[in-house]
Amino acid sequence: MNGTRIAAVGHYQPAKVLTNEDLAGMVDTSDEWIMSRVGIRTRHIAGPDEPVDELASHAAAKALAAAGLAPDAVDLVVVATSTAIDRSPNTAARVAARLGIPSPAALDVNVVCAGFTHALATADHAVRAGSATRALVIGADKMSEVTDWTDRTTCVLVGDGAGAAVVEGADEPGIGPVLWGSVPEMGHAVRIEGTPPRFAQEGQSVYRWATTQLPAIARKACERAGLAPEELAAVVLHQANLRIIEPLAEKIGAVNAVVARDVTESGNTSAASIPLALSKLVEHGEISTGDPVLLFGFGGNLSYAGQVVRCP
């Protein structure tokens, strides 16, 4: 095989929906305040009996079904998450157990909001190197569990969910070379730390970094795939905040692309946001098989990772 491809995608969100009006009854905020600053209307919130691995398993099962595959066709499970409470068993192993995947390599990747694109690159490398045949790559986070619901600057942002992709070998590469890196000295700008762990960020620092430094990096990811930004059919950025997504997408120069704006109805779901938004674009028919799509994650650790993929 000369490369890999995404064979299918799937996503899952909890049933409970938290609106801006609901939040206005919890903290000093309003629908107008939230919409004008972050562009989010609703978010899905998991219950106490819905752990991260359950969210991940639902999305993964849908991706497998879309690919027409049984669980035993998978020999690598990579889960991107930063909200797994337990250290062991890891989330990937729990997903494998829930789905009945026999003896896979199972690993978690914690790169926060850039987790899925890092995990996708890891699976791409493993399959191309011959150490795996077919991989489940999942982004899943339960941000509600690490949120201070009295802090109006952060609680209005977050949502819970999961998205998954099946990655397998292909004669023609359908996953482009990854461009990844970080700004570790600025890692404090986005944090999930403490006991119990709590999400916090320096919003203005993240906004300036995302809108001034990342456009050039995202364009380089397109160059590595041999494409100009105007050739992209879609751009799926980490769904951090509509006020970051829109200027970043514009500065990338993908003038003919559909820009994913799932953040409006799902909030910031961290590592889940990119596969969740990608799966919805596919489900709604907004992109077609073979279309070039830029995936670009950024955020926690001030890490970033992006690659151009072909729509399954």
Automatic annotation (TrEMBL):
Superkingdom, taxonomy of origin: Bacteria
Source species of the chain: Streptomyces spongiae
InterPro entries, sorted: ACP_syn_III_C (IPR013747), ACP_syn_III_N (IPR013751), FabH (IPR004655), Thiolase-like (IPR016039)
Protein's UniProt name: Beta-ketoacyl-[acyl-carrier-protein] synthase III
Domain free text: The last Arg residue of the ACP-binding site is essential for the weak association between ACP/AcpP and FabH.
Family matches, as PANTHER family: 3-OXOACYL-[ACYL-CARRIER-PROTEIN] SYNTHASE, BETA-KETOACYL-[ACYL-CARRIER-PROTEIN] SYNTHASE III, CHLOROPLASTIC
Principal location listed in the UniProt entry: cytoplasm
Molecular function per GO: 3-oxoacyl-[acyl-carrier-protein] synthase activity; beta-ketoacyl-acyl-carrier-protein synthase III activity
One GO CC term on file: cytoplasm
Subcellular location: Cytoplasm
Role summary: Catalyzes the condensation reaction of fatty acid synthesis by the addition to an acyl acceptor of two carbons from malonyl-ACP. Catalyzes the first condensation reaction which initiates fatty acid synthesis and may therefore play a role in governing the total rate of fatty acid production. Possesses both acetoacetyl-ACP synthase and acetyl transacylase activities. Its substrate specificity determines the biosynthesis of branched-chain and/or straight-chain of fatty acids.
Pfam (any one): ACP_syn_III
Active site, renumbered: 113, 238, 268
Region ACP-binding: start-end pairs: 239-243
Domain Beta-ketoacyl-[acyl-carrier-protein] synthase III N-terminal: 107-181
Subunit structure: Homodimer.
Record carries keyword Acyltransferase: yes
Pathway connected to this protein: Lipid metabolism; fatty acid biosynthesis
Biological processes per GO annotation: fatty acid biosynthetic process
Family: Belongs to the thiolase-like superfamily. FabH family.
EC number, as in UniProt: 2.3.1.180
Entry keywords, A to Z: Acyltransferase, Cytoplasm, Fatty acid biosynthesis, Fatty acid metabolism, Lipid biosynthesis, Lipid metabolism, Multifunctional enzyme, Transferase
Residue intervals of the Beta-ketoacyl-[acyl-carrier-protein] synthase III C-terminal domain: 222-310
Reaction(s) the record says it catalyses: malonyl-[ACP] + acetyl-CoA + H(+) = 3-oxobutanoyl-[ACP] + CO2 + CoA
